[in-house]
């Protein structure tokens, strides 16, 4: 086959990479959306308590997966003599917040939990959808590898978790949640921004906007003028309208579902015409 399931990207021949939008990936996308559609359809019948149990289970799952992934990458970095990968391996990506907020939301209550739930059901959900469709990991790993599976499962679980929390009404979104969801982002950026500017990393896409043509072009143009910090602020603020996208969709779907469920029943007490009696 030319590679093994647990091979690191540097050990996989180039001709086996770039599986994004391959047949297995497309099938995965279709099944992901069908599954999430079923959650929306039947999740409202599931008790809210089960969503809390689900979060507790996922708090262990995501932690174990992240430890496995970091250990796996670090092993190969050390094996190849590269050493610890400060630029890429520290979990301070936007998607890394899914891990932290899931753990905190599972084991806390009150305002702290609400802030985490706001993130999980807005920015995390949206980035999960994007990650399922545009899975950048498949540019470096074949579909049938640990690297490919990890990236797909991680983003699918973001998509699934956010939808499940909304469908079971464990979290009901309001407009203010776009700002609540921004709080974890601001907190993580306190770590990400210094790492970006010291090591030239692109954590949370706050340095180069990697993978997003519009933002990468903007970042490059501003950097050429010594104004990269302006791009960092723009990207940081961008997370607010991203959260608003999900809130708008949520409120739209809630309105439609409410109208369907509360459609006026046909009045059976209407007068019967004489012709119908004969």
Describe this structure in words.
With 278 residues, the chain is an all-alpha fold. It has one domain. Helices cover 65% and strands 0% of the residues. It is built from 11 helices and no strands. The longest helix has 34 residues, at 228-261. The radius of gyration is 23 Å and the shape is globular.
Largest sheet: none
Quickly count the helices.
11
| Mean pLDDT score | 89
How far the N terminus sits from the C terminus, by CA atoms, comes to: 80 Å
Assembly form of the protein: single chain
**How would you describe the shape?**
globular
Number of strands: 0
Q: What proportion of the residues form beta strands (DSSP E)? A: under 5%
Which consecutive residue ranges, at least 5 long each, have pLDDT under 50? 272-278
Query: What is the SS-derived class?
Result: mainly alpha
Number of domains: 1
Computed Rg? 23 Å
Please bin the fraction of helical residues. Answer: 55-70%
Q: What is the string of helix and strand elements?
A: HHHHHHHHHHH
């Amino acid at each position: 086959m030319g590679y093994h399931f647990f091979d690191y990207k540097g050990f996989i021949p180039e001709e086996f990479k770039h599986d994004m939008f391959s047949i297995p990936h497309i099938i995965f996308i279709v099944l992901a959306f069908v599954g999430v559609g079923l959650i929306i359809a039947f999740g409202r019948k599931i008790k809210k308590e089960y969503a809390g149990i689900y979060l507790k289970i996922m708090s262990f799952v995501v932690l174990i997966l992240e430890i496995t992934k970091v250990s796996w990458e670090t092993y190969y970095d050390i094996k190849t003599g590269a050493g610890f990968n400060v630029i890429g391996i520290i979990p301070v990506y936007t998607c890394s917040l899914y891990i932290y907020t899931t753990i905190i939301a599972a084991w806390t209550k009150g305002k702290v939990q609400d802030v985490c739930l706001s993130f999980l059901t807005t920015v995390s959900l949206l980035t999960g959808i994007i990650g399922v469709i545009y899975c950048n990991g498949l540019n470096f790993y074949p579909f049938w590898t640990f690297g490919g599976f990890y990236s797909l499962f991680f983003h699918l679980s973001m998509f699934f978790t956010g939808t499940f929390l909304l469908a079971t009404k464990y979290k009901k979104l309001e407009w203010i949640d776009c700002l609540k969801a921004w709080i974890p982002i601001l907190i993580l950026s306190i770590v990400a921004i210094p790492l970006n500017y010291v090591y030239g990393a692109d954590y949370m896409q706050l340095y180069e906007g990697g993978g997003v043509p519009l933002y990468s072009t903007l970042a490059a143009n501003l950097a050429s003028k010594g104004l990269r910090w302006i791009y960092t602020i723009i990207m940081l603020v961008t997370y607010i309208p991203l959260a608003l996208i999900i809130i708008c969709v949520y409120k739209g779907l809630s309105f439609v579902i409410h109208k369907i469920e509360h459609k006026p029943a046909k009045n059976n007490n209407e007068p019967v015409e004489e012709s119908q009696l004969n």
